[in-house]
Amino acid sequence: MGKISQIEYEVYKEFHSKYEDDKKKLEEDKLNKEKNLIRRKVEMAIEEEVNLRVDKEIQDKYYESLDDFDSYKKEYRKKIHELDKKIQVCKSTIQFNEVE
User: Fold this and answer.
1) pTM over 0.70
2) Over the stretch 25-42, which tens digit does the pLDDT of each residue have?
3) What does the alpha-carbon distance between residue 73 and residue 12 come to, in Å, rounded to a whole number?
């Protein structure tokens, strides 16, 4: 029982080789899964960063438009105030002319 036969050795060698190949394939699969997971995380982080930048640009444009609207309102109010003054002058002139 001390020695193994040539056939037993060949069978052992074949199974051991298959075991080593399977072990190597499992390790490669595990590494590929980890790489894919890391790749997905990076892609998600990039997508999130892009979304944040787009959101910031949209927000900046929104606030810009609000500023434009505020300046438009100020101009509009200023013109209304000037027109009110002219109307008062006209009313005063009409009243003055009616008195005479």
Assistant:
1) no
2) 999 999 999 999 999 999
3) 90
